[in-house]
Specification:
The structure is a homodimer of 399-residue chains. The first copy, chain A, has 399 residues and is of the alpha/beta class. In chain A, 35% of the residues lie in helices and 21% in strands. The first copy, chain A, contains eleven helices and 14 strands. Chain A has helices at 15-32, 42-49, 77-86, 100-103, 109-119, 138-146, 159-164, 169-192, 199-212, 277-296, 303-316; strands at residues 36-39, 61-65, 72-76, 94-97, 126-129, 152-155, 250-259, 262-272, 326-329, 339-344, 358-367, 370-380, 385-387, 396-398.
């Protein structure tokens, strides 16, 4: 039975699930000789405690001591109230610092985090920090170091991320729900995008679906769907405009369904009216090669082999794909999309696929004037894989 | 005539507006003795060039040279395509680095940024960085420093932010549009929130409105509305659940209308059914004191005086407000809400209010078991102020 939380619980997962995660992090800390891990990446805070408030714009951390005990959430005093609502931490393990740490230019929230580490008896320990996660700033790290003159600070970026890469059954169940929401969002896109409709109005309908979710479970605020149309389809990270869709143009839509901050990514190219032959050909090649990838992706394969399978297949159709064709996916916040920053499906990445890893397979294909976008999220199973959002696998003709 | 961009332009503002902004930044660089400013905060990239792609999770910067010339956008190669679409920069001033800077653990996007600065002849200069903006990481700064061994790097965090504090007429026009969108979102909340409705379904309707915007102009993906209900109203940064609203409970809704990334914040407390007397009393006191603040907030006043006006007034009603009651607002991205990180309406901040500054006046009031949330965004005018989203000023009773 997966350790899902009871109805009315503060966290989406049962306490046993968080303890399993902490054990994994403590094992990694042990191997690296780290006594105290200062986690600042929002996805890592959520992973270890359930904390999911949008408060990362002021300094905050979850501090994990290797020698046991609860992790400690520390952040701005007003956000301690959030931690009380969305984590199971005891009052001793929720620490708020005063607003002066934000407003006084001489002070910093990281001063309070250093003081906490000293107060808990770790002034002389080895402390891991997330030096390339987007929420630890250089000034923040300086304040942490100045407050811990007898400690040894080391860059342990992605330590927690590598623990996140293998999901539990409970996490997979949440991701299946996110997959259902993603498919509902894509269905809404197909139903909403048409010549003459303003792009922002189609985006509004897609958001509405992604947030309403299904009758059984609601959605959450997802990473912004990327949905350029026409000539803007050459760009990867722009979104809608308030112009109406033009007939005879493509839309490359990449969206994520979001449930308990877990995202399932899903992309399709939609075409307003009959697509040109060159796009049909590119789409057909991509879809056939995706079929080959899907038939073979499973445990024991190395990430680079997945890329190679797809690449050789599309080369057989006269196309190529030199860049990575996916990455490990899971918890996402707007600071860092839904990318886990661990394994990539690309040449040179020898990570071996294991059961319960989840990958967003992203096939952005470009050939002369045509671009075709296709992505799906799969979980690795005992013998193969489980697609989490198996939406219609075709070039979608709309309008 | 405000320098708005022509229809079909790549940027929301005309080129003259961006040049004015750059002049302001160069003056500040001159005063601080900075030759090259490396801007990494997403709002600053947008402010200086129009760049608004959601790509901040990989290293990127806008580099401003004090000695003139266009600023340079530099980031991941695939995002250079975004910069071509949403900025007016020439091809020489858009620089992409290869994906190996992301995937190779020995390399970093900041290596490429250091190389660019060397290539443009600034290897021995004084370089300003944004050391407390959320997108520059400690590892990124180390790579930048290692690539510029003969340069002097100094922390110039918020240099651009302080230029942003006074808006142009064109920016105010965009913020008026954002204000209209914020009010439409609040109206939808009043119409959607009712006993038995799932919180996620109300959130879905609010998002739909915020993104569809008005018939004249669309909205954009805003910072996530904060909308806790019932006992969760003690928290500032949590959002909806998928439970239905209960009759007889409050909802504290803080939302932002978003147009060209400019946000206008707006908050109200809604109550499902008749509110308790204690909440009515608190609301009445807050609204009267807000009226006094609004009657007096204008040019020449210091930020701390605004706080004092409100504080003395609510103290006259038997309540208190010791924490800040607002801050400068403008461009917002999900990395840092819509807070400019400059002036705060609070005791100790002696910034003098000037025409065309914009403030989000935030009055979160807590008394015993009751909480009342009220906020509005105002522009400072020649003689007073202009409320940008003057929604019904009352405790909103719904359902």
């Amino acid at each position: 039975v997966p350790p899902v939380a009871d109805v009315g619980a503060k966290t989406p997962f049962a306490q046993a699930e968080y303890e399993r995660r902490l054990d994994g992090v403590r094992s990694s800390m042990e191997r690296r000789g780290i006594d105290v891990m200062v986690c600042t990446e929002p996805a890592n805070l959520a992973y270890l405690t359930g904390y999911d408030a949008w408060s990362w714009y002021t300094p905050q951390a979850v501090v994990v001591m290797r020698d046991g005990g609860e992790p400690v959430w520390i952040g701005r005093e007003q956000d301690a109230a959030c931690a009380r609502w969305c984590t199971n931490l005891s009052e001793d393990s929720i620490v708020g610092y005063p607003d002066e740490c934000i407003t006084d230019p001489e002070r910093h929230g990281m001063d309070a985090i250093a003081q906490l580490i000293v107060a808990r008896g770790h002034a002389r320990s080895t402390i891991g920090t997330e030096d390339d996660g987007i929420c630890l700033t250089p000034r923040g790290l300086r304040h942490l170091r100045d407050g811990l003159p007898d400690a040894r600070l080391i860059d342990a970026d992605r330590l927690v991320n590598w623990v996140r890469i293998v999901k539990s059954e409970a996490e997979l169940e949440v991701m299946r729900q996110a997959g259902q929401i993603a498919m509902a969002g894509m269905r809404t896109a197909v139903d909403s995008i048409a010549p003459g409709v303003r792009e922002c109005d189609a985006a509004a309908e897609i958001y509405r679906t992604l947030i309403a979710g299904t009758p059984e479970y609601g959605g959450e605020a997802p990473w912004r769907p990327t949905m350029p149309s026409g000539p803007r389809t050459t760009t990867p990270h722009l979104s809608w405009t308030d112009s109406p869709y033009e007939p005879g143009t493509p839309v490359n839509l990449e969206l994520g369904g979001c449930r308990h901050q877990y995202h399932v990514g899903l992309s399709r190219t939609l075409h307003l009216g009959p697509p040109p032959d060159a796009l049909r050909t590119l789409a057909e090649a991509t879809l056939q090669s995706f079929g080959e990838l899907l038939a073979r992706i499973g445990p024991g394969l190395r990430c680079e082999e997945v890329h190679q399978i797809f690449r050789e297949s599309v080369q057989g159709h006269g196309f190529d794909k030199a860049s990575r064709c996916g990455y490990s996916i899971g918890i996402g916040f707007p600071t860092g999309v839904w990318i886990e920053r661990t394994a990539s499906l690309m040449i040179g990445d020898s990570t071996v696929l294991e059961r319960n890893m989840t990958f967003h397979v992203v096939l952005g294909m470009w050939a002369r004037e045509q671009g075709f976008m296709f992505s799906e999220t799969v979980a690795i199973t005992d013998r193969g894989n489980e697609p989490l959002a198996p939406f219609d696998r075709e070039l979608l003709v709309v309008g």
